[in-house]
Structures are given as C-alpha cells and as structure tokens.
Amino acid sequence: MSSFNRRSVLLMAAGLPLVAGCGFEPVYGPDSAATRLRNAILVDAPSNADQFELVRQLEYRLGAANNARFGLSVALDISEEGVALTSDNRTTRKEVIGEGTYALRNLDSKEVLLTGKVDSFTGYSTTGSTVSELAARRDARRRLMIILADRITTELIAQAD
C-alpha cells in the first residue's frame, strides 16, 4: 500500500492561494528584515571564550559589519550543574545553562531599539578521562553559544521592521 494520497495533495495545492494571500513573505527575500540587517550590525567585542564563540556565530549569521548602522551588546550568564548522580554520589553528567540578554542600538543616536533575553542548555558526560571531560565541557559550551546566537538572530529578524 502506497502512502501517496492524491486527495491530500490536491487539498494542499488548493490551499496554496490562501497562504499566498495572507501576507507571509520569505524571511530572506528581497527587501526583507533579514536582508536589511545583513552586514549592518556590529557586535561588541568579546572578552572571554564563551563570548568569542557567541560573537563568531552572530557574525556568521548576520554578516560582517561593513556598513554598521546598529550595535549589538550581549550579556551572558552561564552556569553548570550536575544532573546525573551515581549511588556513591558521583556526578556523571552536567548541564550547561546559558542566558543571553541582548540590546540592539542605533550607532548614530545611541538609542536602544530592541532588547530581549534568550536561554537554552546543553549537557556533557563526566565519565571519561580528565582530557575527554574537558573537551566535552568545551564542546558543550560552544554548542550553547551557537544555540544562543541562533535564537538572538531569529528574534532580531522577527522583531525588525
């Protein structure tokens, strides 16, 4: 039995004109918010390894600030906590919890245009050697910075007009 159903395809095709007329437009289309923000945001310089990873990912998503009209500041709050314990009270897994509070400002007038807060978490195992645990911790923090940068980028694009 085939999972292809002509009726469902026809119903979806019939609904396309309704979606086209509702005001949706591609996020990265011509003259969209994402296109206008591309290469226009100067992210504040990092002061530690976590911020370096965050700034690197933000610049990857938003582009290098060639004609910067906006400045972006991000304050990070990162913590770690044990989430899995053995019967002898050894931690075998840790969770890295991160929160980023951001502010987008006009570079000319210094006016804050947009603020917000994003958060997420990642985890890593502590059961290997010291070297593998340090590598896993570093990787978890890097993944967290990528997630936070992606969420900040999404919010900036969604709220920009």
> How much beta, percentage-wise?
25-35%
Instruction: Give helix and strand order, one letter per element, not per position.
Output: HHEHEEEH
The number of helical elements comes to 4
Instruction: Walk across the major sheet and give the strand order.
Output: 1-2-3-4
Residues in helix, %: 25-40%
By secondary-structure content and strand pairing, the structural class works out as: alpha+beta
Q: Unreliable runs, pLDDT <50, ≥5 residues?
A: none
Major sheet description: 4 strands, mixed
Total strands: the figure is: 4
Shape category: flat
Give the termini distance in whole angstroms: 49 Å
Computed Rg: 21 Å
Write down the overall mean pLDDT. Answer: 87
Write up this protein.
The chain is of the alpha+beta class and 161 residues long. 40% of the residues lie in helices and 30% in strands. It has four helices and four strands. It has helices at residues 6-20, 33-37, 49-62, 130-159, and strands spanning 41-43, 70-85, 91-106, 112-125. Strands 1-2-3-4 form a four-stranded mixed beta sheet, covered by helices on one side. β1, α3 and β2 form a beta-alpha-beta unit. α3 crosses α4 (130-159). It is flat. The mean pLDDT is 87.
